[in-house]
Amino acid sequence: MDSSTTMEGGAGAGPAASASRRDLLALFAALSLVAMGLGGWLTSLGFGEWYDALKKPPFQPPGWMFSPVWATIFTLLTIATWRVARQGAVARTALVVYGFQLVLNVLWSLFFFTLHETGWALMNIAVLDALVLSMVFLYGRIDRMSGWFIVPYAVWLGLATAINTWIVLNN
Predict the structure, then answer these.
(1) Does 64 reside within a domain?
(2) N or C: less crowded end of the chain, CB within 10 Å?
(3) Buried b (16+ CB within 10 A) or exposed e, 147-161
(4) Which domain holds residue 159?
(5) Mean pLDDT across the chain, nearest whole number?
(6) What CATH number has the domain bearing residue 155?
(7) Is 7 part of any domain?
(8) pTM (2 decimals)?
(9) Helix extents (H) in the chain
(10) Alpha carbon distance 171, 168 (integer Å)
(11) Is the CB of residue 46 less than 8 Å from the CB of residue 113?
(12) What tens digit of pLDDT does each residue of 125-146 get?
């Protein structure tokens, strides 16, 4: 389906459809902000002696990179999900996967940083990897650009999985 033909109107849609699309964008932006906020808060609870004492992999990026990368990923996720959601019923499965991945994203921070359960975090991120990869394909079938917007998330998550695995094996 072409992204210019949506259930809420493509080119030439009236003001009501335009407002509805803005509301949908605001919803996904709010969900992203909530997920980032919760994840950030749960992460901050784990910093300190425990985290400092962990042996970390030599390939782990510097700490300052994480916030801007996650902000970019969540921005792309918001736009991609908004574009997909405008396609109506065909997007239902993709949106369910989106919801589950948001929950697992936040839970990873809880397991890893707050509870210091790196093994549980690794199991969580393995499922999250599968969900995000499925989003690349589900979103891409509905709207090609949206699928591509999820690729940086999948790549960064792959790095996070490698870091989590290294930490489990070396601590």
Answers:
(1) yes
(2) C
(3) bebbbebbebbeebb
(4) 15-170
(5) 91
(6) 1.20.1260.100
(7) no
(8) 0.87
(9) 15-46, 49-53, 66-85, 92-109, 118-142, 144-170
(10) 6
(11) yes
(12) 999 999 999 999 999 999 999 9
